[in-house]
Design a protein that fits this description.
Elements: H1 7-21, H2 40-53, H3 58-70, H4 75-90, H5 94-107, H6 114-126, H7 137-152, H8 159-186, H9 190-203, H10 210-224, H11 227-241, H12 245-256, H13 268-277
Helix pairs in contact: 1-2, 2-3, 2-4, 3-4, 4-5, 4-6, 5-6, 6-7, 7-8, 8-9, 9-10, 10-11, 10-12, 11-12, 11-13
């Protein structure tokens, strides 16, 4: 969070650090000094100072929280609340970061920093998205929160970043479906694998996983002897991703059976193919 840390405030941080060290048991970086007798700005500057100089943001949170307690209706309390959210997030205390960010949005919905608070809230979900194999609940929550930033603050400096992260999170969900689909396919559970690959083709068609999903559909349908569906999947793949190595693989599988990558019969894939030809998909 750079908004409140200018060259002037950096000087103020150092001065505030000196001021607050005269209180109680000293004021080394990371040591929490009683602040009841100090002005809101002095406490705020100490919080900034700790955030910049102490590896543990918890001490900075302490000072920002004290401003809320001692000066709850001041402008410094508002600024301290957004800095609390930032400090918690920097410390990877995502639940507390969400709580502070949400309190800011609820209390100051029209403030200029509401967009940043919403963005921090979304990041608190997004930065918890772990490896593909983990539960995807946080990914859905990240997508929802990122969408709110994009829709509510489209002209803000955070919208572009939110869009990029939304696409990555969306791709992450498709990756989860692919992982499960490959697991079923490898073990011969073809119908179950088809269901997963179909989700990618129908619901995540703009992600990087679509070409492989179509190739895997060719593989699974051929294993079940459903040649019409396999050929249609190959046709969709060839129409959109002919230069992809996944198309080369699918084409080789079809050719090995004396088949072609062309639409056959009537299935959900035939409908997809028609949409492709009409330019309504991808």
């Amino acid at each position: 969070m750079v908004r409140f840390v200018s060259s002037k405030s950096l000087m103020a941080m150092a001065l505030a650090g000196l001021v607050l060290t005269g209180c109680g048991a000293g004021g080394d970086a990371g040591e929490r000094v009683p602040v009841e007798n100090f002005a809101a700005e002095e406490i705020y500057r100490r919080g900034e100072y700790e955030l910049e100089n102490n590896r543990d943001p918890d001490t900075a949170v302490y000072y920002f929280s004290e401003i809320e307690r001692l000066y709850p209706y001041s402008q410094w309390a508002k600024r301290a609340l957004i800095m609390q959210a930032y400090s918690y997030h920097r410390n990877k205390d995502y639940e507390e970061a969400r709580g502070a960010a949400q309190r800011f949005v609820d209390t100051y919905p029209g403030d200029d920093d509401a967009a940043y608070a919403k963005y921090l809230l979304a990041l608190s979900y997004y930065d918890q998205i772990d490896e593909v194999g983990r539960d995807q609940g946080l990914t859905f929550q990240a997508l929802q929160a990122l969408r709110e930033v994009i829709e509510e603050y489209p002209d803000s400096e955070y919208a572009r970043s939110a869009i990029l992260k939304f696409d990555l999170a969306f791709d992450h969900l498709a990756g989860k479906e692919m992982e499960i689909g490959r697991y079923y396919l490898k073990r011969g559970h073809y119908a179950a694998s088809i269901n997963r690959f179909r989700v990618v083709v129908e619901d995540f068609q703009t992600t990087t996983h679509t070409p492989e999903a179509l190739m895997r559909l060719v593989e699974a349908y051929l294993a079940l002897g459903l040649t019409d569906e396999a050929q249609t999947a190959g046709a969709v793949l060839g129409h959109n991703f002919q230069s992809s190595p996944f198309y080369e693989d699918a084409y080789a599988q079809l050719r090995g059976r004396g088949l072609s990558a062309s639409p056959k019969g009537e299935s959900w894939l035939t409908n997809v193919y028609r949409q492709v030809i009409q330019g309504k998909w991808l």
